[in-house]
Description:
The complex is a heterodimer of chains A (132) and B (394). With 132 residues, chain A is mainly beta. Chain A is 4% helix and 40% strand. In chain A, the strands form two sheets. In chain A, strands 6-5-4-7-8 form a five-stranded antiparallel β-sheet. In chain A, a hairpin with a 5-residue loop joins strand 1 and strand 2. Chain B is built from 13 helices and eleven strands. In chain B, helix 1 crosses helix 2. Chain A binds chain B through residues 2-7, 9, 12, 36-38, 44, 63-70, 72-76, 80, 82-84, 92, 94-98, 108, 122, 124, and chain B through 132-135, 137-141, 145-154, 156-157, 160-165, 168, 209-215, 260-267.
Amino acid sequence: MAPKLPRLEPDTAFFWTSGADGRLRIQRCADCGQWQHPPLPRCASCGSEAVSPEPVSGRGRIASYTVNREAWLPDMAVPFVFAAVELAEQAGLYVFTNLKAPIEEARRGLPVTVAFEQQDDVWLPMFRPEAS
Amino acid sequence: MIPLPEKSVCITGAAQSEVARPSQRSALQLTADACLAAIADAGLSVAEIDGIATYPGKSAEGGGIAPVSPSEAAEVLGITPRWILASSEGFSHMAPIFNAVTAIACGLARHVVVFRTVAQASARRQARASTLLSGGRDRVEGNNAWTVPFGAVSPVNTFALYAQAYFDRYGADEAQLGAIAVTSRAHAALNPAAIYREPITLDDYLASRVVSSPLRLYDCDAHVDGATALVLSHRDAAADLRNPPLHVEAMGMAVGGLWTGRHEGDFTSLPAAHRAGEMLWSRTDLTPDRIDCAQIYDGFSIFVWLWLEALGLVPSGEACRFTEGGSRIGLGGELPLNTGGGQLSAGRLHGYGHIHEACVQLWQRGGKRQVAGARNAIVSNGGYGYGAMLLRRD
Lengths: 132, 394
């Protein structure tokens, strides 16, 4: 269980509901091709308003991670791995997530793939080690 | 060319209220205690103060992070301000200082009191519901929405990512990081106002519990109740006051990266903090080798490495070896660091403890922790927005 779910806001709802069809989506600029996350009403690179969600491969690598051992909330199960994943589509394109694997498997550079967890109307993009 | 505004502005007074965990005094009382003491320290009367500013203003949210507005502080102090500011965004908690500098340089005010009050110790004893630490099923929004659903409820989780990436890239280890907490505590032992003064050893550090790897309990600062106040004055009005004026030799500021949720770089540096550092050094003839003490933001210990490198005090990737063993950052070292104990041991005054300590050192009030002959101090502030100042005494 996630401790708290994200509010579905107009600019971000697509990201949190994208997993309904099993695919992760990230905002992309149709004019210059740049991906950006978190989403914005215009492209941070070229200024175009032609930005919209596009499916990504769901693959990436662990850019960094931490093993959280503090139970911040009464029903929080610890330890768990909190990580930043750099998506395969673009250097520096990060999403935060949990690594769904034993904590000792966490390492920088680990290839991972998305694995959604649905809670209510939210599909949380979790990641697990890519099958070798 | 427009003259640099900070060259017209000095710090003329500085003071702190009681700092406690918790304090029996209200946030507004603590604010008045600090402001009145700072005004008296400058040798001014309340009637001579014509500006007031704070970070961030007043909010019911955040568990005591924003308990006092500048308007109510002005009322309690008896100030009739011509210039007032609550700065809730921007260049770390230094933003109201930078704005006060520009207001003074432009002639909008002559003597400005800038305060920062925190009441996080009291707030968390009363109710965790004012923070993210409640068990309710309410939803999170804004930047918190990107991290909290994954259990990263505390900023320690985000900054642990930086610590781990730094460890991996530069081959740093726990002992090198732990030297910051150990050295800070040794300095706090010489600071009567610090909240944690019992010395700790590296073994104590390594035995402390891991909160979010690789960061341990002693890598995290501590909630307190307390207020810090500074008086900033125009240079022309500073010469005849009680203290030797502390010139704001240079200031640097930047936002980006974490502030917007859009990460820059590879988690081994804070690129926006580097921009603040570049701005700072572009506005002075002083150079890093002239710095007598460094008061570096340490909400988490890892910030110290990131800021030392961002400010060019240590080459990138070298901060871990610089802090190792603690001798170079101790009081007799080449760069005495967080000489009052920093936030790790003197309490989370949100950067203002660091500024206050820089003033203490430059005014030679450090007692047993005094850095002999300190003339130039550098101060940095912030983990999400970034500000840095160079203070100089003639």
